Amino acid sequence: MKILSVVGARPQFVKLAPVAHAAAAAGVEHAIVHTGQHYDPMLSDVFFRDLGIPAPDRHLGVGSGGHGAQTGQILAAMDDAITELAPDVVLVYGDTNSTLAGALSAVKLHVPVAHLEAGLRSFNRAMPEEINRVLTDHAADLCLAPTAVAVEHLAAEGLAGSTVLVGDVMTDVLLEVRERALADTTAVDAVLAAAGLARGEFLVATLHRAENTDDPARLRAIAAELMALPVPVLLLAHPRLVARSAEAGVEWSGAVRLHAPLAYPELVGAVLASRGVVTDSGGLQKEAFLLRVPCTTVRTETEWVETVELGWNCLVDPRDPSGTAGGTSLGAAAARPAPAPTEATPYGDGHAAPRTIEALRALVARRA
Ligand code: UD1
């Protein structure tokens, strides 16, 4: 069996790592296409280096652009890559434009497609990610679900027959990297010292979702709340946030210490050292939960509902981050005490990647 993984954006490199390792352990051939959606070294190369991911077999070099241009360019280039690499199955990850383009190209070339992290839903069709994940699930021959809730969503859309619950591959990699981060804190200590931060006395923040960064009024309102927090905030700024802040006239000051994105082991170390997380990232909400650090999510909904149900995540409406309309303010959410401890494992046991390889084997055997 030959698997072809299609990746392009930062969270996909994290998910690719355990899959690449499980494929190697199972003696399965595995090729990688990097679409080039993310090209900054801190959003791409460092993940391959730190997580021991083999170099991609093809780099499509697509880069940034509008949704249509970016998706279309990846789609066009993927046809040649799939034809040349001749995989038995194409594996796409998550919900980005690279995911949708990889799935569409494969399905039209009659190559079986599997979607990892299938069945997540925000039920917010204004998010580009929601369209990408719904269309990818319906194009896929195999939906690899991370949670029981994702399985329910797929069943509700008539996709039970193509669904397998494998667990969450980000949990696989996080549990492993957590041990490394606990054993060696040198790099994180240097980041904290340079930013003038003390362990346990700061928040880690990220903000990159189009719906938050691309509306100047919304971005200014969220920024005002973050800068007014009574604890220092290590804001790990995605290039999109830097660009949109400049356009919206936001000058980060007050509680906020602006910092470049961190490599994955350092991010995990920084979250472990923090007293909380403020984010609009899907992955970071879950990572905070797995590290048992309280999270505040600046979004009206989340795909990772278990984090909220278990009390470790609190949603703040980005249209009203100061809570003047009666909702929870960002400040109140970020200051809340840690919730009751939990032993719950809604994201699996850290062995989702080997299960993924087995599910791919079964798909290829069925289609042979
Ligand atoms: C993409 C995904 C999002 C995911 C995120 C992870 C889509 C629709 N969105 O959002 O689901 O959570 O990746 O980070 O696929 N840029 C750079 N350097 C880079 C990459 C981007 O400067 O290496 C800047 C460019 O100005 C670009 C902007 O960031 O236009 C947005 O990048 P893009 O890949 O379109 O989407 P993300 O916001 O990163």
Automatic annotation (TrEMBL):
Pfam families registered for this protein in UniProt: Epimerase_2
E.C. number(s) listed in UniProt: 5.1.3.14
InterPro entries xrefs: UDP_GlcNAc_Epimerase_2_dom, WecB-like
GO molecular function: UDP-N-acetylglucosamine 2-epimerase activity
Record keywords: Isomerase
Keyword Zinc: no
Listed SUPFAM superfamilies: UDP-Glycosyltransferase/glycogen phosphorylase (SSF53756)
Keyword check for Isomerase: yes
Region (Disordered): 323-353
CDD domains named among the record's database cross-references: GTB_UDP-GlcNAc_2-Epimerase
Low complexity bias locations: 330-346
Domain UDP-N-acetylglucosamine 2-epimerase positions: 24-360
NCBIfam families on file: wecB (TIGR00236)
Sequence similarity: Belongs to the UDP-N-acetylglucosamine 2-epimerase family.
Protein name per its UniProtKB record: UDP-N-acetylglucosamine 2-epimerase (Non-hydrolyzing)
Species this protein is from: Flavimobilis rhizosphaerae
